[in-house]
Design brief:
The protein is mostly helical and 119 residues long. It has 5 helices and no strands.
Length: 119
């Protein structure tokens, strides 16, 4: 099965820098008022609040996958990715750290990569 692009083509900025742009916004929300910023309210609730939200969003991805509706799968996956980015920012990590880890794993079989983690 090939890739399905639901809404037009990616712009250069969307394909190349959206994670970095989002990371900058998430970082700036650390100083925001939790009463006026959703992200600041997540930070104020601490890691447990962020993890709870990630769990909720992951469940919604599973439900969308079960329903098989492409638009819902994409939307819920975007929500999950957003909240994972909040966790990264909360912990002082950049999306680049995840990209580097994915690049490191690229080309390894899943079984080979798992064996390396267990050593």
């Amino acid at each position: 099965m090939g890739w399905v692009l639901l809404v037009g083509d990616l712009t250069e900025s969307a394909s190349g820098g959206v994670l970095e742009q989002l990371a900058e916004v998430l970082e700036s929300r650390k100083l925001a008022d939790p009463e006026s910023s959703y992200v600041a309210s997540l930070y104020a609730g601490g890691v447990d609040k962020i993890l709870k939200k990630i769990g909720e969003e992951a469940t919604e991805v599973v439900m969308a996958g079960k329903d098989g509706e492409p638009g819902a799968i994409v939307a819920e996956t975007a929500d999950l990715c957003f909240h994972l980015m909040v966790l990264l920012a909360h912990e002082g990590l950049s999306p680049q750290a995840v990209i580097i880890e994915l690049q490191r794993r690229f080309g390894l079989s899943g079984l080979e990569e798992k064996a390396q983690r267990q050593q």
